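During the second half of the funding period, the structural biology subgroup turned its attention to how the target accommodates small molecules. The most pressing case was iron/sulfur cluster, which had performed well in the primary screen but for which no bound structure existed. We therefore specified the complex as follows and requested a full 3D prediction, including the ligand pose.
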Amino acid sequence: MDDSGKSRSRGPWTVAEARAIHDLPLTELLHRAQSEHRRHHPPNAVQLCTLLSVKTGGCPEDCAYCPQSARHQTGMEAESLLPVDVVLEKARLAKQQGATRFCMGAAWRNARNGTQFDQVLQMVRGVRELGLEACATLGMIGDDQARQLADAGLTAYNHNLDTSQEFYGEIISTRSFQERLDTIKRVSESGISVCSGGIIGMGESVGDRLGMLVTLANLEPPPESVPINALVPVPGTPLAERPPVDALELVRMCATARMMIPTAMVRLSAGRTEMTREAQLLCFQAGANSIFFGDKLLTTGNPDTHADLALMRDAGLEPLVPFAERPQSSDSDTNDASTSASSVQFVSGADDSSHRSHKVSNAIVS
Ligand code: SF4
């Protein structure tokens, strides 16, 4: 039995079971989630991922939260695909700053074959040659495209469910929930890891949030990576007036995701600019073990890198090495962070001692 009182050889998750975890008293929930976390992951390591929009704006889809949709009046100009060398320079910089995963996003309904897809393949190869995990999010992809991305070395493909099947129609009308599941299946069958999560704060119920986690947890296999985002309301989008998400709701989502999909990386994603350091640390305690690192997400803001490095330093957290270099976890070998995380020293910047940078003393991420 695990700490949720469930047999490990369990059947499919139900929303009622997810709710029983989600609604636990917070200290109990944190305890159980952290215990589950330690069974599968080094306890004090957080992966730093950098996200770059390689093709911004002008998207034909109508996702209600997204400033990149051409259907919303957000003033965002559509840009063309960034050149490969520009993307790889950004990836190099991200690595220098401590990131171990580089995620490339393109505002497409679906990736089209031809020059642009070939350029994306070059980006993937280049990012992997730098020793970084490579993730891409390009909209819907076909079997052949998934194979080509796998052959190029793509580590993970992000395709979020966004919300529950029941609430989905309130947020997106141009792509069905089933199409999302089909893309995820293609990615999974190609051997690329699946990164899929969602957004809270869009007007959905707690049941919808948990319905999304239930769908993800019941995938065969469940995603390797689960981003949990809080809505960043952007003027000009239909969700511009949504009230902010309470940080404790994010904590509960991270903890529930950790309990339901214990092996996944739980990525505390959009919305961190509105969170205190303490709230972010509660999310780590709840089992979140990755953040997006860099001053910008695809188009919205993110805490600056100095603030994130200071948070890591002050909390004694270490950056996680790329997954390809991580020892396989097992119940008996994951309580020693030193075997799995790089060793990191936080050092004062030469020009300004108040600006901290970090030096990673590990061959893998040096
Ligand atoms: S979330 Fe993606 S698919 Fe939806 S509008 Fe934005 S860029 Fe397009």
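Two results from this model are relevant to the next phase. Residues 26-40 form the longest helix (15 residues). Residues 86 and 112 are 21 Å apart (CA to CA).
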